[in-house]
Every structure is written in C-alpha cells, then in structure tokens.
Amino acid sequence: MANFFLPDDANQQIYLDANATTPVLPQIADVVSHTMQVCFGNPSSSHITGIQAKYLLEQTRSKARDVIGASDGDILFTSGATEGIQTAVVSTLIAAKNHQIENPVLLYGATEHKAVPNTLKHWNNVLDINAQVLAIPVDKYGILDHEFIRKHAANALMICTMAVNNETGVFQDLAAIEQVIRSENTRVAWMVDCVQALGKTRLALSQTTIDYAPFSGHKLYAPKGIGVLYIRKGSAYTPFIAGGGQESGMRSGTENLPGIAGLNELFSLLLDKENHTFKSLEQLHAFRKQLHEALIDTFGSITFNHEFEYSVPTTLNFAVNELTSKEVMDLFDAAGIRVSGGSACSSGANRSFVLDAMGASDWQSENAIRMSFGPAVTEQEINYACDKIRSLKPILEANCLVVSDSTSPQQEVCAIDLTQLRHQAACCWLYVDSNKHAVVIDPIIELIPRMAKIVATQGLLVKAILDTHKHQERLSARCLLAKELAEQYVGKETDELGWPVNDETIPLNTARLRKVATPGHSQDSVSYLLENSLTNDISYCFCGDLILPGGLGNTVISGSDTAQMVQSLKSLATLIDDTTLICSGHDYQQCFAMDWHAQKATTPLLATLLNGQLSEAEFIELKQQADQQKQHTSHPLCGYVDVLESSPMKQLTSTDAKAMLGDQATYLIDTREPYEHGVANLAEVFNVENAKVINIPLSRMANAIVQGQLDKAKNYILVCRSGNRSKQAANNLSQLGFEHVYNLNGGLALINSNQQ
Ligand code: PLP
C-alpha cells in the first residue's frame, strides 16, 4: 500500500518529492532482494544460474519495449538517465565529427535538466566539435519555441528536448516538435529526455523519429542506479563504456541484475491492466486538485508557477505569496511533509533557472516550492497529506505568517524586545517595548508583508520607521511600509531617513532611541542607539553599514569617505561599551548577534584603530587598499568582510548529546523558529524536562544575549532541523565568548532516521 509514508510511527513522513526520487515499492524491493540472494547469477555465465539471470535480463528488455512502445531499435540497461544522456550525446558528436555544416549548433530546451546542457557543453569541448550550444527558449507556460527550432534545425548536429519537466511537470507536444524538426532536417539526432514521463504519459517511441530516449528507474519506484536508454534503429552509436562486451558490446560491465529485476517488476505493474497500483490520469488529476485546495485553504494567497493544463498531474510548483521558500520548507519539514525548493539536483542554487526561462517573477523563482507525488500514490495518502497541510494553518496564524481570521489566535511569536528579519544578507530590525510600541530599522521591501502581519497580529503601534542611510543597492521600503501599516503607524513629520524632525529621542517605555551622525560609508549615515532611560546603558547600536559583522562598511561607493568613517568609529566607541550589540544593515557572515567586544576581536582594522596601534592616516590607507582590492574580487556589496574563522566547536552525535544532558549544567538550545516546533518537541525527543530546552531562534539571538538568557558557565547543545543553523548559532556563541557550546551534528533529521 503505502509508498510515500515511511513507516516510522513516531514521525510519520509524508513524502511529496517524487520528482526527485521515489521509495522502492515493496513488491519491487522483494524481487530486487530475491535477485541479490537467490537469482543472483551473472548473465554472462553459461551454467544454469547464469542462464536464469540472462532470461530475467532479456525478459525485462522485452517488457521495456512494451512499456515505451519500442518494437524495434535498441534497449540498453544503463546506470540511470545521466549515463543515457552521455551515451546519446557522445554517440551523436562522434558521428558528427566530420560534419560539413558551416555554423553548427547543438540545441537544448532552456528548461532541460542540467544533465543535458552540461553534457552537451562538456563533450562539445572534449571532442573539439566547436558547435555553438544554444538554449531553445520557452514561453511563459514552459512550452518550447517551435519557431526557434525551425530556424536553427538545419544547422543542428543534435536537438535535445524533454518530454516532461522535472520542476513544473510541463509536457511538450512531441508530435508537433517532430514535425518542425523533420520538416527542416531529416538527419539531425533528436534526444528526448523521458525520465519524468514514464508512468505519467503514454509513449510509443518506435512510431516517432526520436533517436535517443533516456529513462531512470529511481523516478518510478525502482532502485537508484538503474536506467534504460532507447536508441532508434540506425541512429549513431558508440559504446560509452567498453570492456567485457556485455549488452552486445554496446555497454560493457556486469549488468546490474537486481536493478534490472526491479525494472522487470515495475514494467509488469505498468503493463498489467488488472493491477491498479498505478492510478489513472483521471484519478491523479483529482489528487492534484485536492492538494491544490488544501494549499489554498492553508496559505490563502499562492502563485502557481505553471498551468495545470500543460503539466502532468503529479506536480504542483508554486510560491506562497509573502513567505520565502525557506520558511515554507522549514514549516513543511517540521510537520513531516517533504517537498523541494525547485529541483533537488540543484539544491543550493537559490533561483530556479526553469522558472527564470519561463519569465517568472524574482519572487516566484527564488521561492518556488515543488510538491510532487508518484502515480502509485493512494487516496488515503493524499487525504492524509491534505489533512497535514491544513493542520499548519493555526501554526501560520500564531506566528504571524498569515493574518489570522480567528478571533483569538494563539500568539507564539514573541515580538517584545528585538527581532531580526532578514532577506538574503540584508537585515531589518524590529524593536518592541512592553507597551507594544515599536520601531522598525532598515525595513526591506521583500519583508513588508511579513512585517505588516506581525504588527497587525500582535497589535503593535509603530512609532518610527527608520533607515540608517539611503541604501544605494535598494529602494527604501520606509514609505511603502508606512502606507501598509496605515493607522498602526504614528506618522509624524520626519527627515528623509524617517526620524521625527522635532524630536531629540524616541521614547520607548524604559528605554529611548537616540540618533547620532556616523558618516563614512555614506554622507547621510546615522546610527541609532537604544539606551536605558535609567542607567543610560546602550544595549543596541543600529549602525547600518558602518560596521558589519566581521568587517566595516565599504568606502568606495559614491559619497563614502574613509576619513569620516574614522571619526564616526571613534565617536561611537566613546558612547557604547563591550556588551553593546552591534545591529548592522547587512550580515554576510551569518553572525546573528555581535557585541562590540566580539566585533573588535573579529575586525583587526577596527581594533587597531581604536587602541591607537594604527594612526588615522594608516587606517585610511589600509582600509582604502582593502576596499579597492575586494572591489575587484567580490561583488560590490555594502561592505567587504573577511571570512570569519569558524571557532573550534565540538560536533555531537545524538547519543553523545543524550549522555551530556545527564549533567545538570547542560542545556539544549532549539534554534528553530517557533513555527517549526509543532511536531518535534525537543524535550520529548531527548527525554529531558522542558526547563532543559531554551528556544532561541536565530532571529532572536541578539535579543537573547542582551536579555542575559545564557550563562557562559553552562554547557549548551545547539539543535535545529539539519544541523546547519545550529552550527552557525554555535559559531556565533563561540565568537561571543561562550566556551562550552556544542552542535548536534546532522540535527533532528539524523535522530529521526536513526542514523546516529
Ligand atoms: N532528467 C530529468 C528530467 C531528471 O529529472 C533527472 C533527475 O533528476 C535526470 C535527467 C537525471 O537522472 P539520473 O538521476 O537517473 O541520472
């Protein structure tokens, strides 16, 4: 039954990332295991065990023909689609070596899986073909530009298109493409990547002039490491792997018989009309509709990045308006729902080239979520997935991620005191006093909806929206935010950075905000100091891009002046002390809290200026040199910082962590955002009392330091979902002088999979 529930009772996961890979179906796993243990022969052996293996191999090939409609041509077993693509490209380019075309081109669809363009470029170079590699554009629906193909087909050595896109599920009209290609060029090699089409669309390859079609087992419930390549009769072929002559000499190496047996069972399931493991297209469409409705009910405003009409029913690609893909992914992951941000194979990239090619907006491309299920999904699984998605709604409301429509939403976001909100490396700060009076410093356009929700849901009154300078790289979000907040912003007459013109300070219950001019990075740069009205101690210094974690703002942009920066730094140093938190406008180093002491320790240029080891003139010279140099080696940012050394920090397994927690002075710090806490409660996971768990998301790290939530004498084990954020936080705490910090290696992900 189940194919995307993984049987882990405590933390049942809902796997909705089938376009990345699928679990192996139990009946397929059985035959794979049987082939490893019982029918394990080498198909090349002449004894009975070998003959049985050979029979299985040939039977699978014959079933493959039936599944993909290839009564003739060759069917080769490969390690997967990437090998199939290499084989097709190498075969074509070797055959094309002596071509007579004056300006040869290699064409590929702009939304193709990276395996295709990268393979074309690689072999075009290695084999010295020197063809121009051209991307065929797509329209806003992801459909290939047929006229572009028509224009270039005559000069093409190879044309690569895909049947179904892995990110959006968009399918192409192969018959129409064939008509265009063949009307211009009857000989050009045409490869169609069919990886995502298997089991989702009908294929009849021998009835087409497709020369090569790669497939991959792991995208449809067979194991990883097995695939099939179809080669049209008469198409060019050069063995990509030579050796013992297996596969009639076309692909040497002992065959992956367990994988092939897995395909055998998969093909049987696909061919058996009586077997309903694979659902009809109609059912799959109904499942997508259900998921679509669950998403709309939960998130409200969503932009779908593809038209369902032009895509297979097993994929939904969308961006939640106003939530970043990271927030959505963290939320889903915490609820046990596995989806992907764009394509799993290009994880790390923060834009989708597929959506870019379709002309999607920056927001869509940067925040795309792909939800995909396999065609063997069950109704029960889809129902469960929809229930789980809907169960996120109260969490979203409680965390101001969506505006609540309930009368008394449970408030989990703690906006009191300081919260950092980030967009890429830019930082925006929200300070709220206990009367719920707030100031926003360095607002960011992308975060306006989020900020507006926090203000609305928490009932804040915003007394000022301030910029620390006119950010040259982005538009000011001040006026837009003020407009969005309407009556929740106490609009006064302000200067161009948002400071109320007639006021010396902005009073905030037991504190007040003061403005000091700190030119240097720009002429108009100011810093805002939050000082205690009784003690005059300055807890936060909002300094914009004058000082950045691990560095200083750059002084090679128009209007900047290094000599002025010197004076600003020196005068700030007389106002703040080592415990003041430096709240910058940018953070390229992932330091969430940086106090003045740590800032000096990580910025030698600053420290030596302030302690007199460097004269002002020497500082100016060194700073200008450094900025000039970095301007040529890195992107022009608001400041150039050196990579901070990561502090030596101990990585713990969950077993080590559990053992350490026996010690009275050892605590867990949960660095996840509150909306991720829903499912995995750390106290339960580690079997410790609640008092042993301190919640400090990265957005509240600076606040936690100022509030004295942590004690340098104690041991802290930092935890998050994957071990990355907690590692950054642990690093950050080490920089701040905490000596006993540890990171739970691999985070909660590894505990749940019992891999530690
Ligand atoms: N082509 C497409 C459309 C894919 O989705 C993938 C995998 O993500 C590949 C090719 C590569 O397949 P394999 O992992 O079998 O090499």
Automatic annotation (TrEMBL):
CC cofactor: pyridoxal 5'-phosphate
SMART domains per UniProt: Lactamase_B, RHOD
EC number(s) recorded for this UniProt protein: 2.8.1.7
Residues in Rhodanese domain copies: 662-752
Keywords of this entry: Iron, Iron-sulfur, Metal-binding, Pyridoxal phosphate
Catalytic activity: (sulfur carrier)-H + L-cysteine = (sulfur carrier)-SH + L-alanine
Gene3D superfamilies per record: 1.10.260.50, Aspartate Aminotransferase, domain 1, Rhodanese-like domain, Ribonuclease Z/Hydroxyacylglutathione hydrolase-like, Type I PLP-dependent aspartate aminotransferase-like (Major domain)
Enzyme class: transferase
PANTHER family associated with the record: CYSTEINE DESULFURASE, CYSTEINE DESULFURYLASE FAMILY MEMBER
Family: Belongs to the class-V pyridoxal-phosphate-dependent aminotransferase family. NifS/IscS subfamily.
Protein name from the UniProt record: cysteine desulfurase
Taxonomic classification: Bacteria, Pseudomonadati, Pseudomonadota, Gammaproteobacteria, Alteromonadales
